[in-house]
């Protein structure tokens, strides 16, 4: 497992009974977490700045303290991120993805050439910001306007102007890019477990991810750098994603791994999904 480190303004304080208690920019958040299946006698603090509780039909809502602002920023290694409680327990940031940001940053900087990145299912743009700051030109694709709006805020916070934003269904966008003859040196994708397209199309990651990765192989440049897949689907193991990348893109070396967050609890690491990366031309270190 690769652990996301170097967060100064984010911590997982404790975990128990299906929830995690976080300290984010000086504010405490209590949220459900599907990976926390262990039950203990420990009662996580109820005196928090933001608490998300689910209802009977899996929907839920935030209960916030008076001192919590509508939004605020935190930073990691000098990179700023917008934090705002959103629907379905999200805060506009997945801090465990710092693992992948660091890997991509090193690859892009070491390439010593212009790199074009396609970020699919790009959400609020943590990966887009990281790649842009590393010197890449980024195309950021997501079907939700609200997520793209926040991604733009993250870019503005960091003085970035080399990201192209596309609100579109990712499959349809890639199909159009193939017809246009567009190519990219690196592809990132963070597909949902389940979703619906603008015209009722159904996406289920176990059924669709293989064909989608194969489709994306058609927009890789003649000198590709990497393809990275991230997934929070508990049934999709790292080895499965590694196999998919190796079948769809036989050349290059592939690594697959769980990712997680450290906690303040002794011996406890919070699992946060898994990733697989295919590196085609690993830049030599000089």
Task: Give an overview in words.
This protein is α/β, with parallel strands linked by helices and 286 residues long. It is 24% helix and 33% strand. It has 6 helices and 17 strands. The chain is globular and about 55 Å long. The two termini are 28 Å apart.
How large is the share of residues in beta strands? Answer: 25-35%
- Arithmetic mean pLDDT: 92
- Spatially, the strands of the biggest sheet line up as 1-16-17-15-12-9-10-11
Share of helix, binned = 10-25%
In short:
The chain has helices spanning 98-111, 126-133, 145-157, 170-180, 205-216, 238-248; strands spanning 2-3, 10-16, 19-24, 27-32, 50-54, 60-64, 72-76, 79-83, 116-120, 137-142, 163-167, 186-189, 194-196, 202-204, 226-231, 253-262, 269-279.
Give the secondary structure arrangement, pairings included.
Blueprint: E1 2-3, E2 10-16, E3 19-24, E4 27-32, E5 50-54, E6 60-64, E7 72-76, E8 79-83, H1 98-111, E9 116-120, H2 126-133, E10 137-142, H3 145-157, E11 163-167, H4 170-180, E12 186-189, E13 194-196, E14 202-204, H5 205-216, E15 226-231, H6 238-248, E16 253-262, E17 269-279
Parallel strand pairs: 1-16, 4-5, 9-10, 9-12, 10-11, 12-15
Antiparallel strand pairs: 2-3, 3-4, 5-6, 7-8, 13-14, 15-17, 16-17
């Amino acid at each position: 497992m690769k652990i996301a480190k170097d967060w100064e303004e984010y911590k997982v304080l404790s975990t128990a009974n299906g929830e995690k208690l976080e300290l984010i920019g000086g504010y405490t958040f209590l949220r459900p977490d599907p990976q926390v299946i262990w039950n203990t006698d420990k009662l996580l603090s109820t005196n928090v700045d933001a608490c998300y509780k689910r209802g009977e039909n899996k929907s839920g809502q935030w209960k916030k303290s008076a001192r919590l602002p509508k939004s605020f920023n935190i930073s990691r290694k000098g990179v700023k991120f917008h934090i705002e409680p959103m629907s379905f327990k999200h805060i506009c940031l997945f801090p465990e993805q710092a693992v992948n940001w660091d890997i991509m940053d090193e690859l892009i900087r070491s390439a010593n050439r212009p790199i074009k990145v396609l970020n699919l299912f790009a959400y609020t743009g943590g990966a887009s910001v990281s790649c842009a700051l590393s010197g890449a030109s980024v195309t950021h694709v997501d079907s939700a306007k609200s997520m793209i709006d926040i991604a733009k805020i993250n870019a503005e916070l960091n003085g970035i102007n080399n990201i192209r934003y596309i609100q579109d269904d990712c499959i349809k966008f890639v199909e159009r890019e193939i017809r246009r003859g567009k190519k990219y040196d690196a592809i990132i994708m963070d597909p949902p477990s389940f979703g619906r397209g603008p015209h009722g199309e159904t996406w289920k990651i176990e059924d669709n991810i293989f064909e989608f990765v194969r489709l994306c192989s058609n927009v890789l440049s003649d000198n590709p750098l990497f393809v990275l897949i991230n997934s929070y689907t508990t049934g999709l193991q790292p080895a499965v994603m590694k196999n998919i990348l190796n079948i769809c893109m036989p050349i290059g070396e592939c690594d697959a791994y769980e990712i997680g967050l450290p906690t303040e609890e002794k011996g406890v690491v919070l699992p946060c999904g898994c990733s697989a990366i295919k590196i085609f031309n690993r830049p030599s270190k000089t």
